[in-house]
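Suppose you are handed a protein chain with no further information: no name, no annotation, nothing but its sequence. What can you learn? This example shows the usual starting point.
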Amino acid sequence: MRDTKRGRLTKLPLEIRDVRHKARFCAAIALALTLLPATTPADQLFVSVDVPATLSAADHLPNEVIERNDLSYSTEFSLGVSTQISALQLERDGSWLFSVLTPTQLGGQEYEPRDLIRTDAGVYSLVIDGAAAGVPAGVAIDAVMRDASGQIVLSFDVPVELDGGSYGRSDLVLYDGSFSLFWDATAAGVPGYANLVAASLNDAGDLTGSFDVPVLLAGTEHLPGEIVTLASGFMSYELDASWPAYATLGSLSFPPGIGPVPGAAGDGGPPLTLSANGDGSLHLEWAPSCGMSSDYAIYEGSLGDDGSHQPLICTTGRATAADIDPGPGGRYYLVVAHNGYREGSYGRTSAGAEREVSQGPCHEQALGTCY
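A reasonable first move is to predict its three-dimensional structure. Written in structure tokens, the prediction is:
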């Protein structure tokens, strides 16, 4: 049975010979520990809008997290009707970091535009208390992302001085308990009239962003709603020609890559284990995946037919164990971690190559390191 809920998986490979007779089985746990590009185009991302906007013939509001897939838009979820999202980051565990444009009460607590908030299944919590961190009143976070090592990176809507440093409104600022410059917009050639209002690392690890007004970068004009690569020169990453001229891409988040499950060579994690239940079913257990991946899928294939694995279960409800009914003949199983949007590595073959992605995966793949 396949869960159709959108989700992503990380991988843990197990190969079993003739599970029907509780005979011999071999387990192979080999997972990617390096950041690799996604196996499919990075066509899925999440955005918000700064004003009510018509996208894909539907009206969307500033309180919505909007999925943008192949330039088609749909509402992923909404916050309170009076909430206006000003920054957004999808986390590896499927929760969301965000900031609000105006003081807003969520879950009985008041949040300011200088705060960074987490929401997970409708529960809200404070990640960065802006006042305690030294962010002046009246300053708003208008972009949030994580760098390749997992550190939080922010941008602000106005010039601000923090921990002895001065930052412009298109600068990206790393926060690890104190603030430091992550990306210098002026040095990169961003004119002072523009404001960086969205930033994210795409599946390939490229720094991308969007601006609030038409902006001339390296001799080319880029429009609001357009996603631009930032770190390796300014190039258009994605432009939706139907994006309304009156709206700004209020925030931007690519689904993050998923770290490996313990068990790879040198990782030191415990291997996947399998045992037979008395009713002929199998019991699988594995260690939690690294990083912040929170859910798992189980793939089943026929021994001797590498690449035949198909989804058996697309979610374990975040559990690190599952009971399954094996198919006939010799079977092998892969346990893959995911966050509801991307899945990770299917492990490595004995030759050290990444295992094939299933022909019918639960989710698209984006490999990542742990943090």
